[in-house]
Automatic annotation (TrEMBL):
GO terms for molecular function: lipid binding. The keyword Signal applies. Pfam families: Grp7_allergen. The gene is LOC112904817. Residues 1-18 form the signal peptide. Keywords: Signal. InterPro entries: Bactericidal_perm-incr_a/b_dom, Mite_allergen_7_sf, Mite_allergen_group-7. This is Uncharacterized protein LOC112904817. The keyword Signal applies.
C-alpha cells in the first residue's frame, strides 16, 4: 500500500495549476514528499487486522505543514492574498425605545485579506481501505480581514468612512480521495464549518453609540456572507482545478 500512496504524490510533481502558470512542482517538492514518505514509514501507520477489509491510517502532519507553508508562499507570490469583493447595499429597520429607525448602508471598494494565513487545524490523516486512499485536511484561518468603504444613511443622518472586520477562527474541512483501481481523484468534501466572531472597527467620522449599534447589527451577518462567498468560490475553485488537473495528468 505504501508505494501506491507515494506514487500518487509523485504524480503531483508534473501538474500545472490550470492556465495560471502556478506550478505544483513548487508545492509538492522533493522535501515535501520525503516528509510524507517518513510519515508512512513511521510507527504512526496502523493496520486494522480485525476488519473484513484491511485498512491503514497514517498521521501526516509534518508533510501537511510543509505543503501548507509552500501554499502560503505561493498565494503571496501570485498576488492572491487579498481578494476584491463586490459592492453591497443593505437596508435595515431598527426600533429603539418608541422610535423606529430606517436606513441603508452602501459598501464599496471591498476586499478580503490574509488569505495566505491558512493553516492546519488538527491532525491530517491519510487512510487506506479497499483500494481507496482518503486524505482528510482540517484547515483554519486565525484571522480574515474584511475591508469596505461605507456610506450610511439613517433617517436624515449621513455617515461615511471605512469599516474593517476581523473574523476569528474560520474553520474548513477538505477531504480528497484517490481510487487506486482506476486512478481517479475526487474531492469528497469541501466544507466551511464555522466563521468565528467578527470584531468591527470604524475609521472616519465619529459615530454615535446608538448609530454604531444599528450599523454593526447589519454588518456582521453581511461580512460573514462575504467571507463564505470568497471561501466557497475562490478557494473551492482552486481545489477543484487541482483535482481536475491531476485526473487529466493521470489519464493523459
Amino acid at each position: 500500500m505504501k508505494p501506491l500512496i507515494l506514487l500518487f504524490f509523485v504524480c503531483l510533481l508534473h501538474i500545472s495549476y490550470g492556465n495560471s502558470e502556478v506550478k505544483l512542482q513548487n508545492v509538492f517538492s522533493a522535501e515535501s514528499l520525503k516528509k510524507l514518505y517518513e510519515a508512512l514509514e513511521s510507527s504512526e501507520l496502523r493496520s486494522d487486522s480485525s476488519s473484513v477489509s484491511p485498512s491503514s491510517t497514517a498521521v501526516i502532519n509534518d508533510y501537511a505543514d510543509n505543503v501548507i507553508s509552500q501554499v502560503q508562499s505561493l498565494i503571496v507570490e501570485k498576488g492572491l492574498d487579498t481578494v476584491e469583493t463586490p459592492d453591497a447595499q443593505l437596508s435595515f429597520k431598527r426600533k429603539f425605545a418608541l422610535i423606529t429607525y430606517k436606513g441603508s448602508l452602501k459598501l464599496t471598494e471591498g476586499s478580503v485579506a490574509s488569505v495566505s494565513s491558512i493553516k492546519r487545524d488538527g491532525d491530517v490523516v491519510a487512510s487506506y481501505s479497499n483500494k481507496y486512499l482518503s486524505i482528510q485536511v482540517p484547515l483554519r484561518y486565525d484571522v480574515l480581514d474584511v475591508n469596505y468603504k461605507y456610506r450610511a444613511q439613517i433617517m436624515k443622518i449621513h455617515q461615511t468612512g471605512r469599516v474593517i472586520g476581523k473574523a476569528s477562527s474560520t474553520t474548513l474541512k477538505v477531504d480528497v480521495g484517490l481510487n487506486l483501481t482506476n486512478l481517479v481523484v475526487d474531492l469528497k468534501e469541501f466544507a466551511l464549518e464555522d466563521i468565528g466572531n467578527i470584531k468591527l472597527s470604524f475609521k472616519g467620522n465619529k459615530i454615535d453609540d446608538w448609530l454604531l449599534k444599528i450599523i454593526t447589527n447589519g454588518l456582521v451577518p453581511s461580512f460573514k456572507g462575504t467571507i463564505k462567498k470568497v471561501v466557497n468560490e475562490k478557494l473551492y475553485d482552486a481545489v477543484v482545478t487541482v483535482v481536475e488537473s491531476l485526473n487529466k495528468e493521470l489519464h493523459g
